[in-house]
Amino acid sequence: MKSKKERMEENKMSNTESKPEFTIKEYFEHLKEGNLIGCKCKKCNSLYLPPRKICSNCYSTDLEAYNFKGTGKLATYSLIHVGTRYFVLQGYKMNKPYCFGIVELDEGLKIAAHIVGPTKEFEFDPNNFKIGMPLKMKILKIEISGQEPHYDLGFEPLM
């Protein structure tokens, strides 16, 4: 097995070609359209979300865009009772917590995301969240007074 230093040197020599960049701005533009685009290392097949320039497994810069299905299962979660101003304005509070969890995508990658429900009543009941429950991607439109809306990745139960 090659050392980390040997892999880095090997990849410096093999990654001299120029290719288009996939930026975080483009990631959010795709997300707004309902597409969950990350990247896949062509050398070792590691997956990343959001996309990045260098594979942290083999240090290759030969990565390509990868379209995730947007489905997975809840690996673990935490109920947050005291949130930021944005979450308080959305109705979350001490007796109405919001769920933040780790989702294991069908492709095997684990990511952190806000877990929402089909209704606020569903979300406010902590008994509705179960480890292993199937989830699907939901694009969350974030609107804060005086700012342009932006979009973020969330997940909801697959019903």
Give a written overview of the molecule:
The chain is of the alpha+beta class and 159 residues long. It folds into 2 domains: 4-68, no CATH class; 71-157, OB fold (Dihydrolipoamide Acetyltransferase, E2P) (Beta Barrel). The chain is 19% helix and 35% strand. The chain has 4 helices and 8 strands. The protein has a 5-stranded mixed beta barrel with strand order 4-5-6-8-7. It has a 3-stranded antiparallel sheet with strand order 2-1-3, covered by helices on one side. β1 (36-41) and β2 (47-48) form a beta hairpin. It is globular.
Tally of DSSP β-strands: 8
DSSP summary: helix tally: 4
Residue ranges: pLDDT <50 for 5 or more in a row?
Answer: 11-18
CATH class of the largest domain: Mainly Beta
Q: Can you name the CATH architecture of the largest domain?
A: Beta Barrel
Order of helices and strands: HHEEEEHEEHEE
Number of domains: 2
Biggest sheet: strands side by side, in what order? 4-5-6-8-7
Terminal Cα separation, in Å? 45 Å
Compute the gyration radius: what is it? 19 Å
Q: What structural class is derived from the secondary structure elements?
A: alpha+beta
Q: Determine the CATH topology of the largest domain.
A: OB fold (Dihydrolipoamide Acetyltransferase, E2P)
Please give the share of residues in helix: 10-25%
Q: Report the portion of residues in β strands.
A: 25-35%
How does the major sheet shape up?
A: 5 strands, mixed, barrel
| Backbone shape | globular
- Overall mean pLDDT score? 86
